[in-house]
Amino acid sequence: MNSGMGSMPVGDVIPEIVLLVGTVVVLLFALSAPRRVQWWSSVIAIVTIGATSAVTVKLMSAGSIPQRLTFFDTYAIDGAALWAKQIILAASAIVVVLSVDWFRSDQRHGEYYAIVLMSALGAIMMAGAADLMELTLAVLLSSATSSVLIAYHRQSRRAGEAAIKYYLLGALSNGLMVYGIVLLFGLAATTTYAGLATALRTAHSLPLIAGVALTIVGLAFKIGAVPVHAWMPDVSEGAPAPVSAFVTTLPKIGALIALARLMAIMPEATSGWRPVVALLAALTMTIGNVAALWQENIRRLLGWSAVSQTGYGMMAVVALNRSDLAAPSLLYFLVAYTLGNLAAFGVVIQLRGEARITHYHGLAQKHPVLAGAVVVSFLSFVGIPPLAGFAAKVALFGASIDAGYAWLAILAIVNTVISLAYYARIIGHMYFSDPSGEDSSGSLAIMGWAPNACVLICSLAIVAVGIAAEPLFASFRAALLLP
Amino acid sequence: MLTAAIFVPLAGAIVMLMLPASRERMLRAIAAAFASVPLVISAIAWQRFQGGAPGTSGFEQIESAGWIPTLGANYLVGIDGISLPLVVLTALLFLASIIYPVDYRGRIKSYFALFLFLESVSLGVFLALDLLLFYVFWDLSLVGMYFLIGAWGHGEEARRAALKFFLYTLAGSLAMLLAILVLYLHSGPSTGQRTFDMIQLIATRPLDGPGLSATLAFVGFGVAFAIKTPLVPFHTWLPPAHVDAPAPVSTILAGVLLKMGTYGFVRIMLSMMPLTFQRFAFPLAVLAVVSIVYGALVALAQDNLKRRIAYTSVNHMGYVVLGVAAAGALSAGNEQARVLALTGATVEMVAHGLITGALFLITGSIWRRAATYELAEFGGLASKTPALTLLATVAAFASLGLPGLAGFVAEFQIFVGAFAVYPWLAAIGLIGIIVTAALFLKLLQRVFLGDLPARWSAWTELGRVELVSLTVLIVLVIFVGVAPATLLAVIEAGVRPLLGVR
Q: What residues does A131 pair with on adjacent strands?
């Protein structure tokens, strides 16, 4: 069919290979290095991420952005996959920097960075997978490594509980997904998306619906969507804070693109995927927002807010093949969400994981930069211009209306108003409360310069990406989803 | 040049944050200097204003730059006869409010920075000629106002008032965003050809007339602007926001932010969807009359000085919307009446800004000396503060529509226009004027006449800054009332092309 047919062009997966080799180097180093230089693993990890990003750039700039399948049509090299790689790599780099101070006291934290890189590889593979087996592999790689990361504080009961919840829910939904994939394979006698796209056209509707629905459940787990979203707040609160930042962000980038890629090839009339995804999007944003209203813990609140953001992101999937805004809005949303989430969790990390609401009383007077970053991040989540989240919502809502789903856009607007209530509550505590009370921000110790720098970079990027949205939209416009 | 009017205050906000906090007088002087730049620029813009030659769009002094061309959104600013007076009003009210003394609560730098930020985005709303840019400035005005009310408002209640304000008006602006997107999606077949350009949308009217999409968009805009204006029953956010905000902030809220709602009715709904507007003109006029009468009656029942003035805003903005609705009504042969109604509505926006702006500043002076707004606690202040009494009396008379003052010019035109289109509604609306007269006379009597309670025997006269700010506003109220021709010429130059009347 194309250059990938019948051969294994190793050049197409150079980024993945570089990342994998780097992971192995980090692991070997961590196993052999003495305790006091364990943190060097983070440096190697950053170098690996930088190198992976550089070879990805090379892949992107070879003429125009490539649009093709490779490795016997199982892996996509297209705008969406390449941009997702870059977003995932940038996010991983930020998480690594956020982690250094946090894990410094852990005696064997070198291998932590190896698992982070491996998990990032899982997310990258999800974004590129154009084959059901490949997708399964990617999802499992991401899930298994995430479980380990969540439980990384071996002594913490909270972390253990979160990890168990994550693992069990993951095992259930991944199992269902595999079952769904088997059904799809049975119907089409092939696992490549290119093959499925033609073979499923004549498939019987009932098993097709079951197969699609079960597969959606597996990906819904990774993005934190209803009905398998419940791990989000627990992991957000219980896991080591840098891991919370990681697990609520990176797998979502890969899995949302994977969901889009898979849905785009499904025959619409017989599989009925569009209304199903629309319904899940509606439930996800509503449940996430309503649950977040009652949270007294910022980390739980961020977990629920991450659920609701997933709901907005799914609007882009709903609009696939119907609106030319769908793919650009999805990628731009992922950029905006990633920056916002990392800025918010960066603040939590900088405050050493303290997350009771009273800890934020008067934060604006004690730590104006941190408070400012929370405001920028939260208002970006709300969609206040000119922050990144605004352009994301404009594109998402526009795509949704364009696709004939005005009701979903209206629901998203109602949800946005609800979300302002809890975001503004925190902002009010930071700006209009006194920092002198017991347990208030006045009593907090901070982590170090590295998280502070990350927070600053992310929040400035939210403003910059929001105002200068043109280059991104211009690039993403060409980012078609294969096949 | 207009771009500088938007961004110089923004630069000032950043400068403010970098200055030392100890020198209060210096900070105030610098803030005033930054705030006066837009006033100078808008005065120059007024000088250069051509008045829309025939066959042109009516917009001039346009400045543009690329922003998100892929989505058809650009930086595009300019003025016409309707926005120019509002820009001048905004610049003037901000200068008057920013220098007005208030309790800074030890956060003087952020107070001035937020005030300048709010000025920048408020000017942006009236100058923007791109819908997405308009929305950006519109939403940012909410953020600025939220922080000003929350941090410098009176007491614990202020936080709740600020949140209520933010939630309500954000709901409105998101409804507008939806409407903007529907309009945008109809402006072309695919992303590359669609546009947010307001001049183009006014010229081509891609979404006008009956139909589900047009109705949806119209209702979205309608809800957004009705909340902002506010029209009954969307007004409930306004009284707490006004009462709990510091006085200069109330001045901006009433004088500038409410105008954004009525400006939106004219600039977007009436200009871009006139055929849809015709279908909804009557219900809109009914809502306007309800606001007029309800606002006046509720104001009459208030014992709180500031709450009473706040409700008169509901009443006055009802006049504006009545004028707009009459101008947009389907009525062949009534061209002159429609021009009159819309001109009156625009004059009323300016007049209400000046008058109510002054009234709220006056409440600020009273609060600084008394720390209460309860009418029952006042009396006989005329003997202690003749200057305040004089200024408040002129402002109150202007607000109740006394001939020779700005309010009369506006209300006369609105009612003459409205009588030709909706005689019965206009007649009912007149009740509002009578009630307003009563409530203001009672208010003046209560505060300034009668016996002076002993606790106010040490009442101090207005300071210099207060005196200058108020006097400038009141002089303009008289000037517009006595010699309205200058203002009317500019406004009509915007109104005639809008209504397609020559």
A: A192
